Amino acid sequence: MLGRIVEIANDNRHLFVSRGFMVIQQTDGDRNELGQVPLDDIAAVVANAHGLSYTNNLLVALAKRGAPFVLCGPNHNPVGMIWPVDGHSTQAGRYDAQLAASKPLRKRLWSSVVKSKLAQQAAALEAAGAPAAPLSALVTKVRSGDPDNIEAQGARRYWQLLFGEDFRRDRQAGGLNGLLNYGYAVLRAATARAIIAAGLHPSLGIHHANQGNAMRLADDLMEPYRPFIDLLAWQLRRQEMAEVNPETKRIMVRGLYDDLMTDAGATPMQVSLQKLATSLAQVYLGEREQLDLPLPGLPLAMATNLDTD
User: What range does the domain containing 127 cover?
Assistant: First the structure.
């Protein structure tokens, strides 16, 4: 069973544990119970509202199950994340292997991630009816470690091709940018959970090196999956739904359950993230050579929706 991404988006809510469930209670009025979610079914909790309170017991119960608790600030940007200290039976050995990874190995891994991201961006552009060749042509130019910053060159072309020449990616803006922020926050939480479950440390990145970022590895591994969020946002804007609201947030979260094509066949995006994180641990341990990255192309449900539009 795939874990559920649970978002708390309304104000005046209190979260606590009762008999194996996370309970959501209203804090004003009659303090009614609004719902329960089995703790074992939760993949991550996204706290995306003001006036929330929660018990320490809840945070402990989630951490024991490897479920991140994500704190969101203005414009739906994640500003913090609570994750467990122990996440895997052989965690210490995997941490050692992660720390010992050589610079040439990390550069090779990063080039694989960048190539996968560019290929997925090209697939997103093709699905949106935009020219995909400018991104496809960059894939073969990526060298070990991406010293020419082909990733950034691709991003400059990609955003204008997908959303128009007037679009600027701005993490502090609302509207379409806010929708992207929210989608990335959910994707980041799912990626962090996969990393923890694989016995790796989320702050030990392959490429991202910001010392103030405790989720550098999550930011590395989520890169090939960002175009799926981008295309969902493109679809929503086409349907005149480019604002963050309960309906568009549900659509973004559902995207994590869509099937992607992988070498093993159709695989839900959350499972693909888990396979990628596990493959990275295996590379660090010398058990395999390549990352288990998704194949270029759309999630199957998204492709079907585009065909029927």
Answer: 91-308
Q: Say if residue 60 is in the same domain as residue 104.
A: no
Residue 204 burial (CB < 10 Å; 0-12/13-18/19+)?
A: middle
Q: What CA–CA distance (Å, rounded) separates 76 from 125?
A: 25
> Which of 74-83, 169-178, 284-293 is modeled with the greatest confidence?
284-293
> Taking the complete model, does pTM exceed 0.90, yes or no?
no
Q: H-helix or E-strand containing 82?
A: strand 78-82
Query: Are 83 and 44 contacting, i.e. CB atoms less than 8 angstroms apart?
Result: no
Number of domains in the chain: 2
> What share of the chain in percent tops pLDDT 90?
58
Closest CA to 84 of 65, 68, 63: 63
C-alpha pair distances (Å), 64 with each of 23, 46, 107, 195:
17, 17, 33, 15
| CA-based nearest residue to 154, from 167, 143, 138, 142 | 138
Amino acid (one-letter) located at 201:
H
Domain end position, chosen among 19, 35, 67: 67
Q: Which of 270, 134, 124 is nearest to 192 (CA)?
A: 270
